[in-house]
Amino acid sequence: MSYDFDTLKVQGGYDASLHNNAVSVPIYQTAAFGLGDSYRADRLFSFSEDDPIYTRLSNPTVDILEKRLAALHGAAGAIALASGMAAVSYALLNAAGKGGRILTTARLYGGTVDAFTSIFPDIGLEIDIIENPDDVSAFERGLKSNTRAIYIESLTNPFATIPDMNKIAGIAHSRKIPLIVDNTIATPYLLNPFEYGADVVVYSATKGLSGHGNVIAGAVIESGKFNYGSGNFPHFERPLWFLRGTDNIERNILQVFPKTPFTGRLRAVHLNYLGAALSPFDAYLVLLGLETLSERVSKQVANALAVIQYLENSPHVKWVCHPAAKNNPYKSLAEKYFPKGAGGVLSFGFKGTEEEKRRFLAATKVFGYQANIGDARSLIINPTETTHVELTPGQRELVGLGTDTIRLSLGLESPKDLIADLEQAFKEVFG
Ligand SMILES: Cc1ncc(COP(=O)(O)O)c(C=O)c1O
């Protein structure tokens, strides 16, 4: 049977009969699992039997989340991690390894952009940033002989711009490298990047996936269709002693994980040795959040539409950035990629002085002033001084991020109260 998204988000990956018929997914709060006899241990440690050994590597609660995420994307495999940053950095390290390059844009989460200069070069990973991601041919021109992946966000923060994913995937595939997509803001409810050529999808599950602002979590998901045996990824083809079978013969990643080489390597290497494991309790919270993903995100999209309409008519607003706003240049890409709406994150230009902007931020009562998005509660922030503070003036200019920018992440409150809150905050500042 193949089930629809809304059935999978509640039931996918879980067979209650294997867990004492528990209706809610049990939290396996244990560090280690009994190995049984030493012959079973041989099979477990040689990846020949797929049961849990130790919670840093796998855990039944986390495993159900991974299976559910894979099912929601029609994907071959998934790995859950302790944060979105772990998901982003492990995925890029896995693709490029030592001496490889990643081709990307500056339209990314500020922490990701900062990691490009703060840590990745120190561990042998070089990043190339193209200036104008709206010009798809720039991706073609930006490729170098050792580029090992193209990395984009499907819906960007804070301006909700949309890359032409299908075309960018075509460019990646023409060079036998994968397209890795951060789909955090979109969530799989609004967009399944695998339907548009992505090979690997990463999430900060801290945001809309879990949706209640109560957990830090991440995930990497793979289509299972990309060929890592083309010669471009020697680290997937090199036989390793720690991957040996029960016969003591060395094997490579492609032999041990033929269906899920990307997430298989992430687990065997990155999770194993760098260790950003998601706790079973946090996996449980993400599973709980996923149960209402469609309902939450569609309400957030509806709230965004109402707030956009209000902002567009406010004398205190210079511009509104979201594909649903008037004259937005991403309307046709939004029709193609986001028929259910382009998410609940938007930005607007505040018409006033820096001091007035700060007073406005202090005056909202329903919108919370926090560095997060995708929460059930509506949030407001000034990105240049907070979430994107790491960006150099040059990088800010590249993404068009001015100090007048205010970002909103719409939650699940009444749209009437949200609009009234913005209105009273403007009144507080401007009278
Ligand atoms: C698009 C995107 N990717 C990755 C991250 C990092 O996620 P986390 O905070 O869960 O580490 C964030 C965090 O804001 C994000 O917005």
UniProtKB/TrEMBL annotation:
- Catalytic activity entry: L-homocysteine + H2O = 2-oxobutanoate + hydrogen sulfide + NH4(+) + H(+); L-methionine + H2O = methanethiol + 2-oxobutanoate + NH4(+)
Q: Does the keyword Transferase apply?
A: yes
> Gene Ontology terms, cellular component aspect?
cytoplasm
Q: Which residues carry this modification: N6-(pyridoxal phosphate)lysine?
A: K207
Which key words tag this protein in UniProt? Lyase, Pyridoxal phosphate, Transferase
**Which branch of life, at top level?**
Bacteria
The EC number(s) attached to this protein equal: 4.4.1.2
Entry similarity comment? Belongs to the trans-sulfuration enzymes family.
Family matches, as InterPro entries: Cys/Met-Metab_PyrdxlP-dep_enz (IPR000277), OAc-hSer/O-AcSer_sulfhydrylase (IPR006235), PyrdxlP-dep_Trfase (IPR015424), PyrdxlP-dep_Trfase_major (IPR015421), PyrdxlP-dep_Trfase_small (IPR015422)
Task: Supply one GO BP term.
Answer: cysteine biosynthetic process from serine
Tell me the cofactors it needs. Answer: pyridoxal 5'-phosphate
* Protein known as: homocysteine desulfhydrase
Per the record's keyword annotation, is Flavoprotein included, yes or no? no
A GO molecular function assigned to this protein is: cysteine synthase activity
